[in-house]
């Protein structure tokens, strides 16, 4: 056990780290909890609202210009762009991970990549919804919407891809710092042959089209159930009620995370997978209600007399805001996730570290500044010790002229005293 002794009071009782650091540890623990609560509220009520705002604006812009767009061409073009961006992801990561790459080029290319992926993904989402509306219109006459929804959820559970349905505010708050966190997306199989292989293209196609279609059906099914059940005759009240339900479930899901993490950490196999899927489904219902409530309220109260203007303002302002806070990556659908595959408790974690990261960076800068000052002080002390040694050597040297040694000694003492005052 290490012993800490106060340098100015050597005669006092020795203190151990356990007794000396307890108050500071308690203070830091409560401070971290406070920052965690602040991060959750910023994520749930600010960042997620911005993400929902840009998705709502982009979707409504497509609907507004629907007469000028060929849905079949838009579907093919969006799938092609998504596949192309998937193929380019690994080369972009390799290039921008080099030490000599331009930071400005990375900033521009990464934001263009994010925006292109978002717009093409939005087109593909709307086109998938349009195609599913055509294909499922006859199915719903025979099979109720609830049954179709249940079948899709069961399929996602059986192939362990239920986590792919998660969206803000019940998913992580994405940042734009590293190339692999921007350009790479989780896919179904991750073939080892690389981006040039046909398996890679097939993997991307399956992840984008098959899993993506199942996700669209699940979101659409839950949304339609809310439209039917939550006072459809008064949409304003329905939206407020949906927000109350959504935020209650989402905040409860965040509050349960420490308990769920401890419980999941003790499980394995099917029990762990079942627990994770139940928790994700519970959180997902809350996320859908938050999206639905905010979406309806924005349609009704944000420049309702000029809806197209409202859509463009939301689209541009929300994206600019996310770029400024270095979180434009949050608007993207982050590929395919495998249930309970992450290490430890990450499978039930909704990371939303923003204020905590800023505080951590500030502490690191402060620590580096302190270390630099300590190095400078050590260099000054070493210089003083060398001067003292030189002085002692001069005093011991024989001198033929009387008084010279005394004068040199006085000069050295004056120089040492002045140096000590500076230190």
TrEMBL record:
It comes from Cinara cedri. It comes from the Eukaryota. GO terms for biological process: clustering of voltage-gated calcium channels; neuromuscular synaptic transmission; neuron-neuron synaptic transmission. GO terms for cellular component: presynaptic membrane. It holds the Pfam family Fuseless. InterPro entries: Fuseless. This is Protein fuseless. The chain crosses the membrane at residues 35-57, 69-92, 104-126, 146-163, 197-219, 239-257, 278-298, 310-327. Keywords: Membrane, Transmembrane, Transmembrane helix.
